[in-house]
Amino acid sequence: MVKNWLITGGCGFIGTALITRILKENPEAGIRVLDNLSVGSRNDLSAVGEFKEIIVADTNGSPQGIELLVGDIRDIFECKTAATGVDVIVHLAANTGVGPSVENPVFDMECNVNGTLNMLEAAREKSIAQFVFASSGAPVGEVEPPIHEEIAPHPVSPYGASKLAGEGYCSAYFQTFEVRTVALRFGNVYGPGSKHKSSVVAKFIRQALEGETCEVYGDGKQTRDFIYIDDLLEAVILAAEFEDGGEVFQIATSRESTVNEVVEMIKQELKEIGNIDMKLVYGERRLGDVLRNFSDTTKAKNVLGWDPEHTLKDGIQKTVRYFLPE
Questions:
Q1: What pLDDT was estimated at residue 2?
Q2: From CA 7, how far away is CA 80, in angstroms rounded?
Q3: Is residue 190 annotated as a catalytic residue, yes or no?
């Protein structure tokens, strides 16, 4: 398994889960986290293990244990410094989601395009062979699903456009500089540890527990492909060890679920496990949202040897149990 890792956005939901997974398989791994703490926190990182907070001047070799460098992917110097002495970069840091990108498309570009380019430059300069990029189904846009890797992208949101640019630069850095890039188009990720996420599963559970009304955008018939965190992590690990590059993979479940179906599952679990009633209201459809979105994961299965294991019902049950107070 890979020895030394750099994980951008490593204090967040996916990042902390990935660190836990890595250390479970290799307790001797060195893991450096580059994070600006805009979403995840020091407390979130400390929940997965003891860490040493370092400054730029300390990064003169491979990471020892878990290291936290508080910095921003928009700063090329910090990106290159963080990449010192690592074998693989897992680039999770981003301005995430359609909504924030519509509100501030320039900031979205600065984070997701310039930030990704900075990390790729760091990989090139530091001769880091492996680069895993967290992408999304958003680059493809409004198409007849299932989404697969050969569909021509036509993003409908600034978020989709910025992630498509990231995929393009990953391809270019493999073809030109031989950085083995792998872009993983994540489905809608959910699971234990997602307390900061604003996506539908985590947000609705959190709002229901706080007695708030949960707002469904539009009529709830829009579909997504919901993937449990443990299944996603397996794909990231496989991508980090992949011996080719310039590839894009759909990482989801190949199952289409409406938001209404997911809401009903959450509602039932909250009632059965915590005796909590979920209050719902339907609002306006969001700008930039696609109506149908689910993936064909055949390529990931055939090339990466990856296949998700968790059902949506099982995953939501585990997630609700995580959120419920002891």
A1: 79
A2: 13
A3: no
Pick the catalytic residue from 159, 169, 190, 228: 159
3-state helix, strand, coil in the chain (%, to 5): 40, 20, 40
In sequence order, what are the beta bridge partners of 132?
90, 182
> Which residues lie closer than 8 Å to 251 by C-beta, 6 or more apart?
184, 185, 186, 187, 227, 232, 235, 295, 297, 300, 306
Nearest in space to 69 (alpha carbons), one of 81, 79, 55, 57? 55
Distances 134 to 109, 162, 263 between C-alpha atoms, Å: 15, 12, 26
pLDDT above 90 (res 290): no
Other CB atoms within 10 Å distance of the CB of residue 60: 9
305 CB burial (10 A radius; 0-12, 13-18, 19+): exposed
With 0.90 as the threshold, say if the pTM is over it.
Answer: yes
What is the C-alpha to C-alpha distance for residues 299 and 297, in angstroms, rounded to an integer? Answer: 6
Report how far Cα 186 is from the mean position of its chain's Cα atoms: 6
- Does 271 score more than 70 pLDDT? yes
**Average pLDDT, whole number, for the chain?**
95
Total Cβ atoms within 10 A of residue 268: 15
Half-sphere exposure of 151 (CA within 13 A, CB side): 21
User: Does the structure show a pLDDT above 80 at 326?
Assistant: no
115 with 73: CB under 8 angstroms? yes
